[in-house]
Amino acid sequence: MNIAIAILNWNNKELLQKFIPSLLNFSKEATIYVIDNASTDKSVSFLENNFPTVKIIKNKENYGFAKGYNIGLQDIEADIFCLLNSDVEVTKNWLNPIINLLNTNPELTTIQPKILDYFNKSSFEYAGAAGGFIDKFGYPYCRGRILDEIEIDNGQYNDTKQIMWASGACLFIKAKEFKKYLFDEDFFAHMEEIDLCWRLQNDGKQILYCSESLVYHMGGASLNNINEYKTYLNFRNNLFMLVKNLPKNKLIFILFTRMILDGVAAFSFLFNKGYKHFFAILKAHVSFYKSFNKFYKKRQKNVVEKYYQEYSILLKFLFKK
User: Fold this and answer.
1) How far apart (Å, rounded) are the C-alpha atoms in residues 8 and 270?
2) Where does 10-79 show beta strands of DSSP type E?
């Protein structure tokens, strides 16, 4: 099975310098690519001079996460793509459990490993943890991470489990399926992997979490958690994703509810993170209203209900503890 590990890079020379050596050491079964989004920090020349076995694909400009991968992966021939963030440290034997699952399950399309925090290796990491899900009102959460609360890894998620979405920090996907479905480039960055996974499952594809494969993620390498642009993208793209993938009989009710919940969130951000985040949410909603028809037209013929939970994670977590 031919695996291509693809790192999308934009001005992350220091991270490449830090993490490429262990990636090369622990990934003998794969070919490693760096897709560069027109970096200006000499990332490309650094790779050429220090890691000549790493193949480099040069995008003409910074296309963002979604379009950057869509363009960069087109010319890579492989059976499996591993989309790997530049701020991820892999571990010994991380590929073999993934390969074994893909070889034994023809229905399986996408896999996510266990993702722990690089800075606190006993804790799960925000972006993916032990596999992602969507609640009744369209809010993503993970086993091991709900809202900003992070769990310690005590082996409670040492399993192989079907999940709703796999993290874009480390996402294995069959190459032919990725090239068929692609990321939605209108997302630019954030939640495009959830949208992709939802579309795959609407067509009957399977997505798994595999705890036997382990990586450590720093998080926030391109946009950290206090960046208001990240707040804008997360709120906007989440609404875009719901319009594309929710069943038609649930769409209006859930969107109306989300208008209220996002308004509450905006005032919470105002008091806890500042006015820039408050206006980022308002801006996200304005953009959503303007683009509603465009994203409604992207809906698939097969939109099913079974891939999101029938409860509110906010109510269960905040009030029922």
Assistant:
1) 33
2) 30-36, 55-58
Rounded Cα–Cα distance for residues 125 and 193 (Å): 17
Q: How far apart are CA 72 and CA 136, in angstroms?
A: 35
- In sequence order, what are the residues at sequence separation of 6 or more whose Cβ sits closer than 8 angstroms to the Cβ of residue 18? none
Q: pLDDT per residue over 97-115, tens digit each?
A: 999 999 898 889 999 999 9
> Is the alpha carbon torsion for 281, 127, 112, 15 positive or negative?
positive
Closest CA to 126 of 219, 208, 195: 219
Q: Over 70: is that where the pLDDT of 75 sits?
A: yes
What integer pLDDT is reported at residue 148 of this predicted model? 84
In contact, 116 and 157? CB cutoff 8 Å: no
Q: What is the pLDDT of residue 121?
A: 96
| CB crowding 24-35: b at 16 or more within 10 Å, else e | bebbeebbbbbb
Cβ atoms of 185 and 67 closer than 8 Å? yes
CA distance 318 to 261: 14
Helices (H) and strands (E) in the chain, counts: 10, 13
Instruction: Kindly calculate the radius of gyration of the chain based on its CA atoms and give it in whole angstroms.
Output: 19
Q: How far apart are the first and last CA of the chain?
A: 44
